[in-house]
Amino acid sequence: MRFSIRIKGANGMKNKISIMLASLLILGSLIACTGEDMKEKISNYENHKEVDSGEEKVTREISYSEDNAPKEIDISNDVEKYFKGYNGQFKLYDMENNVYFIYSENELSRRTCPASTYKILKSLIALQTGVVEDENTMKKWDGKKRFIPQWNKDHTLSSAITNSVVWYFQEVARDIGRERMQKHIDEVGYGNGVIGDKIDMFWLDESLKISVDEQLEFITRLHREELPFDKENIQKVKTMLIDEETKESIFAGKTGTFLENNDSPLGWYVGYAVANEKPYSFVTRIEKAKSGESGKITGPIAKEITKEILKELDIIN
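Above: the chain's sequence. Below: its structure in token form.
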């Protein structure tokens, strides 16, 4: 059994979430009004929607079931334009409605270097072990000139996250030590869990690897405060990740850039948003530009792509 919902308008994505909720309400009515036979059929029900964007028609398949299994919406046709020629992936979780929005589904489980997105977990470990007391814990710059000017000064944990200061987190990693670092990585179940030979480089040298799916699970657990750390420490890290905040919304996350391997550069943005008290988690990963395209692969680019997609989904302004 299937039915269609058709939307007329210039923007095919603006009412996606409200349409999905309406569809679920209709589905609930159908279940309530029919017998057991219909309930059996409805468990494998697929809602086929066609959206007329004004220029082209976009077709999406959404699978629903009677249980609490999450639903998925493939938005590849709608958001590919934001990747501007990059190979990339995107996944967003609507926590309130248990719905995933995905782009490039086949690549979401592939693991790559987390780069500076690992600083989210490392900050939690540093706070939990007492290596840093709080977000204001200062470390002195060693006087060595580095290629990013913002790194060439003293930093706190908070400013080091904001500016993605590698030397600060390398010192933190050495202070934590291999045994405690491995223990917490294992408890969280972070990616492949491999530290490698260098305690102060493993998140940058491709020893540690993680997928988009795993990043999304991790950042969702962070937002829900379900990770195995004191809630006070989780709340501190969540606050330090905030990029933009208004009375109605929060946009928070961490960039990551991996350029050591010229054949496989990476840009990450991992974070969460809250819009009108509704929480979302998301991950964007961009990789080597497609044939014929050029441009840098960096975390800030992944962040801008993320913002454009969230605006398209009407989550942020």
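The CA atoms of residues 185 and 193 lie 6 Å apart.
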